[in-house]
Amino acid sequence: MGKRERVYLSVEEMPKYWYNALADLPFELDPPLNPQTKEIMKPEELEAIFSAPESSHAIAGAIKEAIEAKENKEEKVIVFTLSGHGLLDLTAYS
Length: 94
Known about the structure:
By secondary structure, the protein is an all-alpha fold. 18% of the residues lie in helices and 0% in strands. It has one helix at 55-71.
């Protein structure tokens, strides 16, 4: 197994509110590709991707690491966990 690295955010760096992390990026991301067709995904294919509030910390940490790696011209593999927002699953329990 490869080296494990943890990212710790100070209290000041922790997200205080739900926010769109993409708005804070200093560059535009490539559009997501469908893993089967390798074509750009249509909006309706993305409808089910809603991160849980707890995942925002992992997303923010991954973005921070990616920006730092880009600034230092480092090639890194960054892995984070994204869990879905259970609020949207409540109808499954009715």
